[in-house]
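debug: dumping io for the single-chain case to check the tokenizer round-trip. Nothing else runs in this session.
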Amino acid sequence: MTSRPPSDPYLRELTQWRRVKDRIDREYAQPLDVESLAKAVHMSAGHFSRRFKLAYGESPYSYLMTRRIERAMALLRKGDLSVTEVCFAVGCSSLGTFRTRFTELAGMPPSDYKQEAERSTAGIPACVEKQVSRPVRNREAPVPAPQIASLP
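debug: decoded output
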């Protein structure tokens, strides 16, 4: 099944941004940079960054790092890998940068997060654990408590 691109320029642009975002979500562990993402959609890096931020509220680099840290949090909760192994598994090439960004988004260093996650998530269903532990950029918005509906 093939789909034709929308004829409305606004819808075409939305489709284009969704594809870029999907690529970042899919290839977060690959060496992605703003230049290569911009080149793929035939834009300069500056224009690409401005338009991406307008569409999604954060720069492409920040979005990529949020995805990487989100995945790192999941890997650290599993407990199979060391912090260094997780750093490289999610596509970061510098342990220092990884630790800084992780601390910024999660509120604690990755090694502390791993120890805390082992203690605090014991017995919690995975679907609830993921919702509760999702990173929030710069702690700007509170993480809502999971709502579990009670049966009558």
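debug: round-trip ok. Helices lie at 9-26, 34-40, 45-56, 60-78, 83-89, 95-106, 110-120, 126-133.
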